[in-house]
Amino acid sequence: MAVPLPKGSDFGRNKRSRRTFVLAILFVVYILLGGMAFHFLESYTKLVTVLRPGVEWKPVRESLRVGLNASADSSRLWSERKRAALVLCQRDAVHDIETLLDSAAAAVERGVLPDGPALEGTLNRALRLCGPTSYDTAQEEREVPWSFIDAVFFCMTVITTIGYGHISPSTPGGQIFCIFYSLLGIPISGLLLAGLSDFFAGNLLNFYDSKWRQRYGDSRWSLAAFTVIYLLMGFIMFVFAPAVIFSWLEDWNYRESVYYAFITLSTIGFGDFTAAIADDDPWTVVYKVFVMLWILVGLGYWVLVLNFLQKTLKSKQVMKTLKSTSRLIAKEADEVRQVLSEVGLLHRDAVFIPEHTKMALNMMLDMTNALAGATPTSPGGAPGGGHAPGIHSIGYNMRDNSLLAALMAAMPPPTLTPADARENDGPEAAATNSAAAADTAGKPGLSSVESTVLEDTPEAGPGVGGQVNAGYQSDGGAESVTESNAVSHSPHAAV
User: Fold this and answer.
1) What fold is seen in the domain 1-37+174-314?
2) What local confidence, expressed as pLDDT, does residue 473 receive?
3) Maximum CA pair distance of the chain?
4) What is the pLDDT at residue 256?
5) Where are the domains of the chain?
């Protein structure tokens, strides 16, 4: 059966491409504006490389910080300090350094360049022009504003809902701005990702129509095989291949790199692994730009995969299979419920549940007393009752009071014909069973269960009701069990 394709020679690809291009420009402008805002609003503690001036440059820095007039330096003293500092500098950079220092000194005198980061930056430029012999380097933790590339990368993770969490707003202004920035940025990101997904789908259909269908036909199996291959190639391009680069640049193993790539493109974004968080050198800036491009294009492909899975789950064949499976599960559940009802586990009688719940509690209390070493109570109320004390009494109590025994007693006994009884028990047992059956049948209003297990009631008086007493007697090492069943015909007896 042929697969219907969208109308048009290009499947609407040109129109979608123009719309996606406009959304991409809007997306880039939006994250750049957000980066500028967070760059001025937020700061973080970062390990930075600082330049420490040498011995010859320390008087120059002191003069710039205090000011020439405030320190009573004359122009002759200022010239001597500059000359001593420029001795170790490169010859071709001496003029530029001297001009930079004179401009800074004039700005300090006018109050335009106060002591702070700006003055420190001017002095660092002079030291770098002079050369590495004029300063020493050191690593220090300082509270510095977010770098612009870090702020842009943060905006990227916010509006794509990845949210690594490696940096986050800490000032009230930054947090409030982040809320409104996300409200507008997330829809823009969603539209762009949908456009990229349509772009990939259009290319998929175009290649299928121009290349694949002509060679392998246009059956549904052919389209399914082509789709699987296309999705597999996408995973290789956006997950497995970038993982090789991450394992090389980030010093991760390949498993961790694949994990990071999948967690990022699925927008889970735990933040336990985050790429491109090194120093803000030129190489790191370029690396972060490529990581952001990979995230953007990879998310567009991931949206295509999710749309494909969603449409597959909504297909008629899948829905038909799910419905048949649900009906089968419902049928099996009804059969299990029916079996449980037949054995009494789902009995809804108002008397059945409280009585057997009370019996289960009594059994638990007896087991507790037995484990504690106490002597169990006999059915008549006297302690001991001929049972072994301690842990050895559990078996006797479970025989008399267990819930399983109550359930077995509540089940109707099997009906045996006289021939079966004679065959199983012999002539004497058959005669005894026949007499018992006749005696039970002669008592109206009693079922087989009621004639076996009955309880004494206050109205019935002493000796009324049915009770089972088991006594263990020892005679020369042999045990004998005596049982007596009494059934009352009193109208006041309660079952």
Assistant:
1) Helix Hairpins (1.10.287)
2) 39
3) 140
4) 95
5) 1-37+174-314, 43-145, 352-452, 453-495
